Amino acid sequence: MTHAASTHSSTDHSQVVAEADALRNSGWWIWSHPATSNHCSWSGITCNEAKHVTEISLHGYQVLLPLGELSKLNLSSLPSLNFLVLSGMGLNGSISDQIGTLTKLTHLDLSYNQLNGNIPQQMYTLTELTHLDLSGNQLTGPIPYQTGTLTELIFLHLSGNELTGAIPPEIGNIKDLVSLDLHRNLISGEIPSKLKKLKRLKCLDLSYNRLSGNIPPFLTINSDWEKLDLSHNDDLEGYSPFVHNGGKKTGAQVPTRDTTSQHTIITPLLLTLVFVTLILGLACLWWKKRKVQPEPMAIKKNGDLFSIWDYDGGIAFEDIVSATEDFDIRYCIGVGGYGSVYRAQLPTGNVVAVKKLHRSEIDEPTYLRSFKNEVQMLEEIRHRNIVKLHGYCLHNRCMFLICMYMERGSLNCMLSNEVEAVELDWVKRVNIVKNMAHALSYMHHDCTPPIIHRDISSNNIILDSKLEGFVSDFGTARLLDPSSSNQTLIAGTYGYIAPEFAYTMVVTEKCDVYSFGVVALETMIGKHPGELITSLLSSLCQDIMLRDALDSRVSLPEDLQDAKDVVFVVLLALKCIHSNPQSRPTMQQISYKLLGNIPFPKSPFYAISLHELKNQEM
After folding, report:
1. Residues labelled catalytic
2. Is the pTM of this model over 0.70?
């Protein structure tokens, strides 16, 4: 070994030791007995081949006590870090200036802690950031204008703080920004017209601030919003502050999981009455309706099925009975875990899917519990790739859910059909995997408490007319309570259940990650990957080439970008089916990776083996 090589090796070893010391001295990994173990094996730590720390991602169930001050972790000793996620970990104090030393950082999530002080200027040296989430803290001061220098950002979430001043116009320079969330702050001034430069922006939430002036026209004429919320800014003028969510505009806050009251949902009609009726009279009317509600669940009635939430039968029941000719088998399009699914075309021309719980199942506590569980879950979650619940009905004859209708059926059905499978080209297949990833990331990381689906399978991924993927069937979904053991009965579909779940009976979000990996592989190879997974667990996987594993009914990708996408999806899927749940990525990591730049393996496409992908870093 030359002197230069020896010096490099010594320096590299010293850096590894410094990184291990930084983790150990923080006191955050005391439960892992760090003094006797390799730091790369500690919970929430990911290293590269050189044992440099590249990712720190902790979640509430992985620690026993709040982490305390963020400054306990010597960030300057972690120069290779590119992923730092410490959401909801009880962190306090200010964000250290050392954050500026993490120049390789692409993902920074310190949300839902008790951090205070200003956003440090040093943060704006992190020009590789694609995701920045500081929501749910106690940060003060203005949003620095230097935010506009973070031109790689895709997500910028600063909601739920005490930020003041105006929205920096420089944010309009972040050309790839998809989601901007600044709600529940003390932000004042006008909405900058330069935000119209954000051509990729799909989600904008500026609600619950002190904004004034006219609402820029570009916000109101864009119909492609996944979410637009300008409500609760009393001094905004022009078109009324509104919520736009999934193509649906209302004049009131769309209920989410942190809504302070879930007993009443205000309809567009009631919003109009708010502005034309005396407050006292409306309050009396509301109180009267609330007193006669048969159950503490939301009610909507105005004759249009898409806004009916009819808990006691009536209009919704009669409409559905007529549209299905009293649930005639001719209208049945599938059978679910606890009922049958019917196609119903209403007099308005709208088509919906009706999931009906059979009479015999209504009397069965397990099925009834699943039905009510699905209603609860679908009422409270809203994401463009999660099936929408239009209404539900509890009637003395039957119970049913009224959901959005998916013209192309389940992913499993399409892959099983020799003709339709060809229609699913590589672009569409990759997009379906992305749809699943974003929906599950939302459930695991954007809902409080997190929601675990527990039955992700190709049967529960349904496709619309554009072959977009939607997660459905929430009958077995479960809220993840970090304070409990989360022990549960086995739920799920054989072949998709994480191996550890069968013997631990403990549900975590990593169970969904495993199931996602199976479905992602199934989407790429065109059939359930059971035999392939068995091979991957043995040395035989070295002999399996990617090109031979892919669905032969579709020509191998010729476009370079398509090839990169296919390779990366398979790589992610292989990481997700790791036998050790701690070694699997989170759905948030997967979602982020699928939105970012995708590295291509050193080997050409035709020479890539599954063994190579299995061992390659993300």
Report:
1. 455
2. no
